[in-house]
Amino acid sequence: MLLIGHKDLLKPTIETLHKLRMLHIEEYTEENYFRIGKPLQGAEQDSKKLVKLRSIATFLGIAKPYIEPIDAAQVSSELEEKLEALDRVVSEKLKRKSDIDAKLKEVETTIHEIEPFLGINIDFDLCSGYDSLHVFSGTIKKGTDIETELKEITSEYQLFVSNTGVIVLFIPVKYKDRVANLLTEYEFNEVKIPAISGVPDTLIRELKAQHDSLNRDLETLSSEIDSIKTQYGDFILAGEELLSIETQKKEAPLLFATSDHAFAIDGWVPDDEFETMKSRVEAATDNRVHITRSEEETTDDANIPIEYENPKIVKPLEAVMNLYARPKYHEIDPTAIIFITFPLFYGLILGDIGYALILLGLSYYGRSKLHGEGWNSLFTILIYCNIYTLFFGILYGEFLGFPLAGHEGHPGLIPWWHTIELFNGIGGDIVTFPIHRTHLITTLLILTIIIGVVHINLGLIAG
To answer: What pLDDT is recorded for position 295?
Structure first.
């Protein structure tokens, strides 16, 4: 279909089309006289608000669970004021968090630098700034005594050894080279002295106390953030949805063809919905938008959008169809067939009363807790599948893998339930009730082949 009207009617046309949710718009590619349309007024502002709101949601860790519907007009009226207030509060929290994180990192780095020198009772300030002394600090080979050979060079030295084995050695500058050679023999590895004032043990105590204090501040901040999340969570999710819709509507002209004064919208609508859409758009624009049905050649199925038309009970299986591909325009929609065969095969394979009851319970619980079209389809399909599983579980007489009925001298879980022989199967098998799959292998294999052939041929006929 094609809609043509004056640019002044663009906004009511978009509003009506959005409410109807019937039109699949074909994106216009710019050529000759017509140009791609420009977003409606306010699109940029709404887009900025949306980005800001999503940033706030990310910082607060707000997911997208199901929430109770909120009046759109109420959200819209409060959006500007609440968004500004939220932005101020969240910006302040974000700055505080960044400051605390930076201080924590700085404290942790300093602790890491000081720890090798624990046990040395000397101020770090005294380890530098000398003209006549040189200071070596680092590690040497474990279990070695350097002082014996050091005394052969000079007795004028001061040696400190930390709890971790790091040494700090003060010697006169004139012996620097000879001592350096000696240290090399002992696999000396330099450890830099931190550029900080204080005794290592005292500094560590102070820094760890500071580290604990910063962690407490971080916990307090997290509690404040959780409070904001609880207070504004629903509003943020509703506001994000509202802004997403408004932005989508205001940016819709980017898909249209426009001239200086007019616009044109090309798209697809279900045939039985055309008159409804036509009347609604004309009513919203006082019959000033021209709407015409375009009869297209339907040989190229790839360009035709497809909408499913299935009963409500079958609709969840559309999710399974979408895993493959939607049927093309001239093809039969096999969703109704899959509605029968998919749960049937699932139940035929699993077929167990115990598993069916457990999975049915989990499916109903999941559907009540996780909302949204995708989750609803998934859990509804599982419910369908496990109804079949329950049926075949009764047919097989199995509960959590154990037989309920006795067979060939082996008792089942239910003492009074005995297997009944019905008729001869294939290859010497005897068909019984309940069916014991391990005693009906040939018959089940042949049955599986027949089902497979029928299913494949159904697919070939439908496709």
So the answer is: 67
